[in-house]
Design brief:
mainly alpha
Length: 105
């Protein structure tokens, strides 16, 4: 990610790259039913670079926490919904999906 680049040169290389690597989503209660059990491809869209949180799936993971501290004006949520929506529309309308699966061979 460009924001975490160790130097200006590294940041420029990342920003000028024509490809983007997507990491594995992992496992657990959120993804296992779709990927491992049903074979349904899934994508986790989100923004990075903020703090790691740590309250996910805990007693503190609540609407109140989100409203008071995470996204009081719901701007982050709206931006993420627009980003995910646009990406979804571009993929469903593509003649050929822009993925390179050669790494899986």
């Amino acid at each position: 990610m460009a924001a975490n680049a160790s130097s200006t040169k590294a940041k420029k290389e990342i920003l000028n790259s024509s490809s983007m690597t997507i990491g594995a989503m992992g496992s657990g209660s959120d993804y296992s039913p779709f990927i491992q059990h049903l074979g349904i491809p899934a994508l986790n869209v989100g923004f990075g670079g903020e703090d790691d949180g740590g309250e996910y799936h805990s007693i503190y993971d609540s609407y109140d926490l989100f409203k008071r501290f995470k996204d009081p004006k719901f701007e982050y949520g709206v931006a993420l919904a627009k980003t995910a929506g646009r990406a979804t529309l571009r993929l469903v309308n593509a003649t050929v999906l822009p993925f390179d699966f050669s790494g899986f061979l």
